[in-house]
Structures are given as structure tokens and as C-alpha cells.
Structure prediction request, 709 residues.
Amino acid sequence: MYLRNALCAVSALSLFAAGAATAENIVIATVNNGDMIRMQGLTDDFTAKTGHTVEWVTLEENVLRQRVTTDITTKGGQFDIMTIGMYETPIWGKNGWLVPLNDLSADYDVADILPAMAGGLSYEGTLYAAPFYGESSMVMYRTDLMEKAGLSMPEAPTWDFIRQAAAAMTDRANDINGICLRGKAGWGEGGAFITAMSNSFGARWFDMDWKPTFDSEAWLNTLTFFKGMMDESGPAGYATNGFNENLSLFQQGKCGMWIDATVAASFVTNPNDSTVADSVGFALAPDNGLGKRSNWLWAWALAIPAGTQKEAAAKQFVEWATSKGYIELVASKEGWANVPPGARTSLYENPDYQAVPFAKMTLDSILSANPNSPTVDEVPYVGVQFAAIPEFAGIATDVSQEFSAAYAGQQTVEEALAKAQAIATDAMEAAGY
Amino acid sequence: MARAVTQRRKTFNTALAWAVGLVIFFPILWTILTSFKTEGDAIAYPPKFLFFDWTLENYSIVQDRSDYMRYLWNSVIIAGGSTLLGIIVAVPAAWSMAFVPSKRTKDILMWMLSTKMLPAVGVLYPIYLMFIKLGLLDTRTGLVIVLMLINLPIIVWMLYTYFKEIPGEILEAARMDGATLREEILYILTPMAIPGIASTVLLNVILAWNEAFWTLNLTAAKAGPLTAFIASYSSPEGLFYAKLSAASTMAIAPILILGWFSQKQLVRGLTFGAVK
Prediction:
């Protein structure tokens, strides 16, 4: 026993000494959200273990995306670690802009990363970013309103049931909307939702020849269904509602159902912020019986830009922040409900975490999304709510603006789809597809 | 009777001016009020105006999470430095255009102004690459230069307009008394144009203080000013409205105070030469 303790002490000291001998100051670009801010508050633990210090550049998601893209494409070298998502990782990995994470230590246990996450953050089998947290999307609903409507939410509902339940739960006199969904323009806002939803209706962005398919019946059905349901049971002005607007409505008891990111579960069940915290249930995102559900898959991950002078220290940080040990550190300080979810298999095998009400549904949602086969018909791209090609963000932003205009009644669904087809066709041809 | 009508009109105009002023100021007032709310109260519907649980928690959180003084100091250096440099470059340029015009002066002025019509993002990559080569990325020096260049057309235009109001005969008289060019600009022209220069300085400090494209794209961990400070509290996924409002209030407070104390000078400068 003494010998083991002594060995542990020696190895801990040697780890510190090794780090301290080459102590570096690393600069990390990251997004502003609860999990990332929590990590910033715990950085002292990393510094104590390695001797390296950390400087944070925290930016709003879209600003960050522009900022790190500028830096990495020009080899600016301003950041040693970048927080990027599943969309950027395979594209940047393919371009050789990221350091491959194929030599992480044995203690790190790469095999423990959820396969869906590892797959989405890899290019040709090589991991290029380590998931800090992962998310899918699911149904969050008010159990009291569902009961009052005389309905029972299945674990895996269909869109027809959701529409029926939304109509039954809507109570305009009391300002309760049966369902709240994203309609806001932007590829990561309403664009992400409608793309994931379209998968369950049998639609796809591009066919196997990279031709856009907005002229298909599946897309017409998707948009017609979405607009019809939201006009019947959604909140006024839903065409401009994104994640935050719907979160606010749900927390104030103004939504019967909300289909959105699984990370929202901890917000709507937090009694400090949510007035309905004790009456929230969860279910898988709906389907249409075609074999694909309407949930997405996303991860915020830490990647190291190729060319950084501090690669070794950056790797140490990536290992620390995405390790099992970090999850335990957060749990010990803030409770299991606040640990970064959706990245590691072992988290979902932990009995303490299994007691968290949304843990199982989050895992089931993540596991039911497959970025390599996101649609009913075969597609040439990877990604559930996006297509991992550089042109997608621009095209999807323009297309989602047309969709939002249709939701707002400024044009018909048919007109929006015709414009979307023209926009996507022009952009893809210009890009040489 | 006529006096009563004038008085009524005065009252009406005053009330109208206050109403317009309140409408313009309302977003800032709402930001300040929201900064004292909890995140729950910040999103409450119907909105809570004054009757909520006032808290300083957001300021405390922002202060703990961010080094406000570092961002503030960067803003002061960048806004002050770029304005000072701009004035030094623009005064001789405006002087020559106002008092020794050539047939191309108007064209040059229009050309300078046209550079403001170029979308900033269009030149982001060239400037970013130049900054890499020159080692100016994430430095206050780099931002001072860029913001000076961006605001230079406005500074030159404003000074040119003010200088045009000064009779050229006064400068001629100074020259006849043996004043050199430097003395003419320093001791005759500049004192006469002080209100105009002051309002140009104030306007450019405000423009540089609020600039949020270059200051976000050319900085990282060291030279970020208050615009970067605010951007770190914005989030599309998570409710940060109250904290964002606290950060915004802290960011605009210095410029609001500066504007408040210098409003007389600012108005005097902006109306300089309006009535002949």
C-alpha cells in the first residue's frame, strides 16, 4: 500500500515536473455556453497538474466560426486550440489544417468516445477533434398539459401524433402554444431543424450526383407539414424564433412541446430558471415511419490547428478537458446533472448519471442519429442536419431565409422551395459540382 | 397673445424633444435595467419594467469571469490612439484642401469617402495576411493603425468642412506678418477651429470605441477591447441576456460619461458654421 502511494506520488510529481519544465501559455478560442464557461472556471486544475497556463478567447458562436476560420485558413497562429463543431472538423481535417489526434495517451481511452461522436469528428478514420460535449435533439414536453389533453406521449412518437397533441394542448386564451419549434433563418438555427425534420420525411439536400432536390415531393411535404402545424399550434412570430426564444417560452410555461437540442433538458428542468421544471417529460424526436427520425447530431469539440508551436501542451489540455477525470471533477463540484453530456460511453454506464432524468433519452437520441447515413435515400454527403461540404453553410443560410419568409407568410411554400432549388443549383454549379 | 403662442410652442417643442430623446435612449435604458435582473426576470413576459428583484449578481459574475480593466484599457488606447493619429494626419490634409485647393480636390474628397462604401469583410483577408507578415495581429498598435485608416475619410471631411468656414484672409494676414506654414496651422488655424476639431475628435473616439468588425477579427487574447468583452457574453444557445446587459452597460458607461460631459462642445462643433 505504502509502495503504491509512493509510486503514485512520484508519478504525479514527475508529470508536474515534466509539464513545469516546459510550461507554456496556450490560447484557446471557444464559444459562450454554460459548459464552456464552467470549464474556464476549472482551468486551475489543469494548470496545477501540468504547469501550463491558459488564456481564453470567448466569442459568440457565429463570430467564433468566422474568427477561427480566418485564422486557420491564413495560418495566423493566434490560437493553440479551437472549439469547432462536427461541420468544420471533417472539412478542416481533409484540408490538413488540424493536428490528427491519433496519439492520445492510453489513459485517455479513445475507445470510450461515443461512436457517433468519434465518427462525426473524424476524416477517413482519423480523429481530428475531441468531443467536449455532444448533443442530439428530442421532444421535451409538459407532462401536466399532456395529461390534461387526455394523451400519453409514446417514447418514440410520430409526426402525426405530435401534430395531434400540439392541437390538443394549445390554449390560446391562456397563451399556451401546443408546440414551439425553430423557424429563424440561419443554417444552425431554423435550417438545422428543418433539415433534420426533412430526413424523417424522406427528403435530402442533394442526390448522388450532388443535384439539389428541393423540387421533390418529400421537401414539399416537410415544409407544408411544418408550416401547417406551426400555424395551428405554434407561437405568434415563430418564423423568427430560435433556440433562445423557444427556451424562454418553454421555461415560462408557454409551450406544450419543444423539439430541440438535448442540452436544453438541463435548462428546462432547472428550478432556478424554469417555472415548469417539475413537469417536463422527454421522448425521441418524431418520425414518419420511413426509418429515419428527425433528430440531429452535433458536438462541440476541441481541435489543434496545424502549425501551432505548442502542440504538446495543447494536446495535454485536450486530453484533460475531454477526459473521464474532467467529468468527475465537474460532478464533484456542480453535480452530475451539470457534467458535459453526450461524449463518452462510460458516462451513461455510471449509476450516478443514470439517475439524471434526461440521461437515457439523450443517449438514445444520440445513438439513433447516423451522420454517415442520415437520410432515407442514399446521399453523397456526411452529416445529419448539414452536409459536410464547405459550400453548405452559405447555401443553407440563404435557403433557410426563403423558408423563414414562407413561415412568415411572405411567400408560399412552393415559391420558397422553387427559390431554394435555384439558389442551391446556382451555388453548386459555381462550386464545380 | 403672441407671447402665449410662442410659449405654448416652446413647451410643445420641449415635450417633443424629450419624447424623441426618450425613444432614442430607451434601448440603453432597457439594457441598464436588464443588467439588474435575474436571467428569469430578463426574459419574463410581459416584461418587467421596474418592479423586479434588483440584483448586482450579473456584475459580480462578469467581473469574476472577465478582466474588465484590461479590455477597458485596450479600448482607451485603441480609440484614443487612432483618433490622435488620425487628427495629426488629417489636419494638414484638410488644410491643403480647404485653403490651397486644386482642380482635383473635390474628386479626391469623393474618392476618400468612397472607400467607406467598401464592405469591410472584402478586405479582411488581405489585411489579415499583412498583419501576419508585420507581426501586428492581436496588438494594439495594429488596431490603432487600422481604425485610424478606416476613420480617416470622416476626419478629413469634417475638418475640411470646418476649415472652409474660416476666412482665408485671416491666414493671409498671418502670412504677411511672417508666420511660417507650421505657425499658421498651429497658432492661427487650429485655435480658430477648436470647436470643430473637438467635435471631430469626440465623434471619432465614439466610432473607434464602437468598432466591432476589425476589433473582433484582428485580436485574440491580448489586444481585445470592450467590443470583444461584449461578444464573449452573447450566445445563441443559452440564456445570457442579463449578463450580456451587464457587460454592455460596463462597456458603454465610459463613453456615455464622456459624451455627457462634452455634449456642449459636441453640439457647438456639430452646428459650427451652420448659421452664417
Summary: Chain A touches chain B at residues 27, 29, 31-34, 37, 40-41, 55-63, 66-67, 70, 74-79, 188-189, 242-244, 247-248, 251-252, 254, 261, 263, 267, 272-273 (CB under 8 Å). The longest strand of chain A covers residues 130-142. DSSP finds 19 helices and ten strands in chain A.
